[in-house]
């Protein structure tokens, strides 16, 4: 009988310790749901980052900025494995 009483008390203490963590998880899930529902259905299509060029008064390039030389190309100009 003593074993059953100790087991019941241990179960109650264990449940009491678990309840706050369930509450915190519930609050976190509700916050994540609010953030997800606030997202737009469609994302804005922004232009791709390309290299910026500085031109002189005559239109000749004197400098370029950006460490990658990116240029936007149509999909049919991209090789099949890269698509």
TrEMBL record:
Give the record's keywords alphabetically: Transferase
Asked if the Swiss-Prot or TrEMBL record annotates the protein with the keyword Transferase, the reply is yes
What Gene Ontology molecular-function terms does this entry list?
transferase activity
Tree of life domain: Bacteria
The molecule here is called Peptidoglycan glycosyltransferase
Lineage, highest ranks first: Bacteria, Bacillati, Actinomycetota, Actinomycetes, Micrococcales
């Amino acid at each position: 009988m003593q074993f059953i009483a100790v087991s019941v008390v241990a179960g109650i203490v264990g449940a009491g310790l678990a309840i706050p963590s369930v509450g915190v998880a519930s609050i976190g899930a509700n916050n994540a749901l609010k953030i997800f529902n606030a997202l737009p259905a469609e994302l804005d299509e922004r232009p791709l980052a390309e290299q910026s060029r500085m031109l002189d008064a005559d239109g000749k390039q004197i400098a370029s900025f950006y460490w990658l030389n990116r240029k936007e190309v149509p999909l049919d100009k991209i090789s099949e494995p890269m698509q």
